[in-house]
Amino acid sequence: PPAMLRDEDTEADFQRFLRRVDDVTNLLQGLKSPDSAVQEKAIAETEKRLREQGASREEEEEEESRTTVNRTLINTSVRAFPSEIKAGLNGFLAALEKDAKERAQRRRRNEQLANALKEQGNEAFRAGDFALAIQRYSEGLQKLRDKQELYTNRAQAYLKLHEYEKAISDCEWALKCNKKCLKAYFLMGKAHLALQHFTESRQCYEKMLQIDPQKENLFKECVNEARLQEKRLREEQRAERELQAGSVAALSIQELLHSISSPGHHIPYYTGAIRLLAGALNSCTGQTFFRTNNGFSILRNEAVRGAFCAGSKSPAEVELCVSLLLLWQAACAGNEENQRLLLAQPEVGAQLPELLSRGTAQIQRETLALISLYSEHEGGRRLLGRQDLSRWLQILMAFVKCTDARADSAMNILSDLAGEERFQTQCRATLSTGVLPLFTQLLVCARQVQQAALARAVAVLGSLCADVGLRAQLAQSRECWQACLELLDGCPDASPGYQQCVFAVLGLMMNLLLESNGTIQDFAVPISGRCLALLSHQDGRIVTRATGVLSRVLPASPSAVEEVVKGGVVKKMLKFLKAGGQLTSSYAIKTLAICTKSSTRAQEELLKGDKRFQVLLRLLQSGDELTVGNAAFCLSQCLLLPGAASSLLGSSVVQLLLRQAGGDALRSSVQHNSAIALGRLCVAEPRHIHQLRKLNGLAILNSSMKYVHSS
């Protein structure tokens, strides 16, 4: 490949070039300066440059022609006249302009060539020909040596060839071109890490975060990788010292691994050796010995691999499989490097879902225990996320049918994974075909399954609704809504476990109602009917969630509003507003706002049940703006009724509405609702204008009237 621009002479030449550019720029700025002293200094410097330029050209022409040419020399002892300076200056500037144009043209040509070579290098990199990629990037740098991308791309290729020092050098050059180049710091950190320069690696990653705080997640991953590698190195150095000191545990682990790797034995022989080995891995050093002696290559033994991967296992193969799972638990407990190496074995990742779905109860228990070692911490969940998890939601949810500890273990894993974006993404593929039929079946048979586990499974689906794609699929499913309603039907006089399921289903319904579709409109009436019935439940948590579901489902259907108003929802909501907590109150006032918007009966019942609007006036003083906005909306709707505005004479209503309409509220919707209520109040009962005048609020009233007319 072409010579690299890396030696001291080349760097010095590069720096001289940059200094010359800076000098010419400063000179031009000085000549244009309004400060006469600065301009005088720049003229003197220009004269000096002209003399040097003239002398240089004479030498060049003499060298080329070897002939004597008569010239007019500059008399350095006599200062040039202004006209001469001007003429020389114009010539100098013209020469500078011509030179700049030529340089720009050359740079454009070179940039085109460099870009073409960069693309050729990228193609070679994608094809895995890293040596050719390096050659192309180097050729590009000969055309344009200050192109940052060529340095970072070449550094990336050097990393692939394990030439870490060269990668670091290229990253340093990239940073000379652009001191805020994130890719350069990232690749340099990787190169330092490969050389076990842990401090330097972390410093590179910290620089990344300083340049772009949005890269915090990448920073955490990189720093965590450096931490794990440093920890692994310390562990292996300690294990090596113990081995050199004649550690009995190390020798025992080596002998057992040798026994397991030797072919030709019966399955019970391997099972016994694996059990003994699992017992020997009772310390971090033991785990390290296992790793450094190729313990994770145990599946290379055909008999062991065959028993582990067999679809239908004999009793002996079941015992061996259980022993393997216990061994891996011992090797991976609290050891992230071992966890990484285990899942790097292709057979392990492929067999885990098979063992969960088709294994014996004992195999399932130990498989769940092994997976739990990963799911309970962030690094382990990241490792699991690299596997194919598309079937895991369905497989793990099926454990709800189990009556032993497997159900809890499976739900723990699901709860851990539910917040992982990669898990959510993979679940979309099988949700409608695999998960939904199972889920609806579990809801319908809620009395026949482990109800605590079912409640947790429902809660997991509720958490997965954070993914918009999953939520949309669930909200469109008629079977899902029907199953939820059937479960709610069985709530009266149900067991505590069943009530947990009801609570979880209401939470799921609230999440699904963030969507708006035809299915929800079709089910709005039965959903609101079930929730209205639950408002009398003795469990306050269920009442709160039932109110929340009402507040979200009623906007989908005027018929649903009409039915719940007939069923006495206004009286129930007023009761909650008088005695309920903050969350219940926020749902209740929103429900009243929806009902009073389209139902005169709801307005009349609110006026009758809330004498002088004491409840609404109290809500107008709430610290929660959404509650204030909904209370103002309810009040504005009720002020359409005869006598409603008069009942508020002598109250603080004008002051409260004026404060919100005048700008105290941050949300524009709250200001609008308060303005509409204020305008309707004064139109319906002009005597409120006297109080408004005392509070200097007439200007706000005038501006409020446009909202009244538009409403």
UniProtKB/TrEMBL annotation:
Keyword Ribonucleoprotein: no
UniProt-annotated stretches for the region Disordered: 47-67
PROSITE patterns according to UniProt: TPR
SMART domains per record: TPR
Biased composition (Basic and acidic residues): 47-57
GO biological process, alphabetically ordered: axonemal dynein complex assembly; sperm axoneme assembly
Keyword annotations from UniProtKB, A to Z: Repeat, TPR repeat
InterPro entries found in the cross-reference section: ARM-like (IPR011989), ARM-type_fold (IPR016024), TPR-like_helical_dom_sf (IPR011990), TPR_2 (IPR013105), TPR_rpt (IPR019734), TTC12 (IPR043195)
SUPFAM superfamilies documented for this protein: ARM repeat, TPR-like
Listed name of the protein: TTC12 protein
Organism: Hypocryptadius cinnamomeus
